[in-house]
Structure formats: structure tokens, C-alpha cells
Amino acid sequence: MDVDPDLDADLARLGREELVAEVVRLRNGIRAHRDSTGHDLCWHHPRLWALLPERLSPEVAVPPWPRFLRGCVRYRESLDRQLPDAPVHDHEYEP
Questions:
Q1: Fewest Cβ atoms closer than 10 Å to its Cβ: which of 42, 51, 55, 86?
Q2: pTM to 2 decimal places
């Protein structure tokens, strides 16, 4: 995916303190996403996307249920491979 270089033109106008504040804000958002656990791993993440300056609604395409569930199973299997000693979060999802 090619990124339009003009999307980040606003950074050139920021001073050092503003750039540091922006880096801290982005790091905090990335950490919040990284530290998701349990059922939060499975969700749509508009708060992460909202860290970007461009305001748009992403065009999310949702697979049909059987394919979606197969993807969820593959994702969970990949966690078993990549994090075999991760603690188990054995709780039902409650909205």
C-alpha cells in the first residue's frame, strides 16, 4: 500500500515539543493496542486508527461468517504457536 507523502506534511510545521508530544501520544495508543488481552484482541480498533490526523471512515469489508470464523481460529492457532506459554483468559465475553 502506497502512502501519500502529503498525509504527514503537518509534521514539518511542528516544533520539537509538539513532535515529542505527538510521539508520546502515538506510543500510548500503540501500547494500549499492544496490551489488549482476552476478548479485546478480537475487536475492530477505531481508537487506534483515530490516532492518525486524517479523519475518514475506513471501508471495512467483513467476510461471510464461515470464513470469518476460520480466520479467528487461525489467529488463535497462531497465538498458540507464537505464545505457547501465554496465560489462559477463560472468561466469556460480556458486552
A1: 55
A2: 0.70
**Contact call for residues 38 and 91 (beta carbons, < 8 A):** yes
For 57-93, what is each residue's pLDDT tens digit?
778 888 999 999 999 999 999 999 999 999 999 999 8
**Model pLDDT, residue 91:** 92
Write the secondary structure of 50-93 as one string of H (helix), E (strand) and C (coil): CCCCCCCCCCCCCCCHHHHHHHHHHHHHHHHHHCCCCCCCCCCC
| 14-50 residues labelled b (16+ CB within 10 A) or e (exposed) | eeeeeeeeeeeeeeebeeeeeeeeeeeeeeeeeeeee
